[in-house]
Design a protein that fits this description.
four-stranded antiparallel β-sheet, about 450 residues, alpha+beta, binds nicotinamide-adenine-dinucleotide
């Protein structure tokens, strides 16, 4: 019976495949019920993947010698599942979103929220120019105020020195564009901090910024008479923001009461830091999963997002939720997105390259905007689940599979044991072992 249904689904999808290449829709009802090989065929068609790319994706391959060139003391690889979030429509275009994550429910939650958002046209995004900050710290400055004024007066010379370091970036329309200088008071006395603002185009930018910051340091010492200490990118990328918004129709969410419940959940996060950090973690579930799939620096994103959430001195939600005049739910998110589609390992990691091809993003700004949309989707899905049936029901179904595997189940048995535990509402390793024993005997 199981095989027949599976076969039937495959037949339906084979005919749908032909249409897909023309329509390029990310709305794929039943995608989650397909075996991974069939999902891969759909993704291949959607993103025009080659046979070789499909193989790399399937095997999750990162050659050991390549890994050995990435970090130090390499002894192995840590593979993670890559799931595809469906239903995303962003600025009128459909995206299949690859998400690399170990946590169950995140991919399903993003897909569900994206489906709800489609009713009102999906997500709408925008972003600022990709400007990052390099910090240069000066100590032993005799007259910090005068030093700041002198630095500002020498701006053109300093920017020229910075831009000499990266003609490629400058040719692409990027490079150092501005600077800021200010005095800070510290426990070791006053210091001068210079911010070099650099348009890093499609790179994450940390290396570019660090190189430029180091290069202008001697010049800053000469101008101020002080001593340079740190020269490093700031992960609080306040000039590199992505914004996403979406309207979720009350009917799609489950009615007016669900809208009210979500607004209560949001008000809780606004007023309570213990809730707020988990609210923001829910947003980062989506952001980081896309960042990992595209081999971006997840630590930089996390650090930047949480610092940005506390920008005005109080830790706040990265998203805002309100009711429209029609009684629907409006969600908006804004966060710093220091991500790249070139540089680092983004363009050399074989899986990241394929994930980016699936996403079809052409620039770092577009990638950042997609991340913001996915973060908003995950935020909505988490609040909706929490404010209604609770998160465990959906979560536990997937978690049950992990428990089944922990108990030693393999292959088909994983799903059979998991389904039994969910039906019994006893999702525990001891019960999984018992069921396994029963199945083996029977
Ligand atoms: P990178 O230096 O590898 O690549 C950027 C370079 O690529 C640019 O300097 C430019 O010359 C070239 N380039 C070619 N085409 C480009 C385009 N379209 N747009 C922009 N540049 C283009 O990488 P990066 O992005 O400067 O640095 C990212 C790496 O730095 C990440 O691996 C990150 O983990 C790491 N890092 C992070 C921190 C931090 O976040 N605090 C600190 C140090 C290093």
């Amino acid at each position: 019976m199981y095989v027949t249904i599976q076969h039937f689904r495959v037949l339906i999808y084979k005919s749908a495949l032909k249409q897909l290449s023309l329509m390029k829709t990310s709305e794929l009802p039943g995608f989650y019920k397909l075996p991974p090989e069939e999902r891969l065929k759909i993704v291949k068609e959607f993103a025009d993947l080659t046979e070789e790319e499909v193989e790399i994706l399937k095997e999750g391959l990162l050659p050991l010698d390549q890994a050995n060139r990435m970090i130090e003391n390499v002894v192995g690889i840590m593979p993670l599942p890559i799931g595809i979030a469906t239903n995303f429509r962003i600025n009128g275009r459909d995206y299949l979103v690859p998400m690399a994550i170990e946590e169950p429910s995140v991919v399903a939650a993003a897909s569900n929220a994206a489906k709800m958002a489609r009713v009102k046209g999906g997500f709408f995004t925008e972003s600022t120019q990709p400007v990052m900050i390099g910090q240069i710290q000066l100590v032993n400055v005799n007259d910090p105020k005068k030093a700041c004024a002198d630095i500002r007066a020498a701006k053109e010379e300093i920017l020229k020195k910075a831009n000499e370091q990266d003609p490629v970036l400058v040719k692409l329309g990027g490079g150092a564009v501005d600077l800021e200088a200010r005095e800070i008071q510290t426990e070791r006395g006053p210091m001068v901090v210079v911010h070099l603002l650099v348009d890093v185009r499609d790179a994450m930018g940390a290396n570019v910024i660090n190189t430029m910051s180091e290069a202008v340091a001697p010049l800053l010492e000469k101008i101020t008479g002080g001593k340079v200490r740190l020269r490093i990118v700031s992960n609080l990328a306040i000039y590199r923001l992505a914004r996403a918004k979406a309207v979720f129709a009350k009917e799609a969410l489950g009615g007016e009461e669900v809208v009210e419940a979500i607004l209560d959940a949001y008000a809780f996060a606004v007023s309570d830091i213990f809730r707020c950090v988990t609210h923001n973690k829910g947003i980062m579930n989506g952001v980081i999963a896309v960042a990992l799939a595209t081999a971006n620096d997840t630590r930089a994103l996390e650090a930047g997002a949480h610092a940005y959430a506390a920008m005005d001195g109080r830790y706040r939600p990265l998203s805002r939720w309100s009711k429209t005049s029609d009684g629907d739910l409006l969600g908006e998110v804004e966060l710093p997105v220091a991500v790249g589609v070139v540089g680092g390992v983004t363009a050399v990691h074989p899986l990241a390259k394929i994930c980016r091809k699936i996403l079809g993003v052409k620039s770092a700004r577009e990638l950042g905007e997609v991340m913001a949309a996915v973060g908003l989707a995950n935020n909505l899905a988490a609040m909706r689940a929490l404010a209604t049936e609770g998160i465990q029901r959906g979560h536990m179904k997937l978690h049950a599979r992990n428990i089944a595997m922990m108990a030693g189940a393999e292959g088909e048995l994983v799903d059979i044991v998991a389904e039994r535990m969910v039906a019994e509402r006893k999702i525990r390793v001891d019960r999984a072992k018992e069921i396994l024993e029963e199945l083996k005997k029977g």
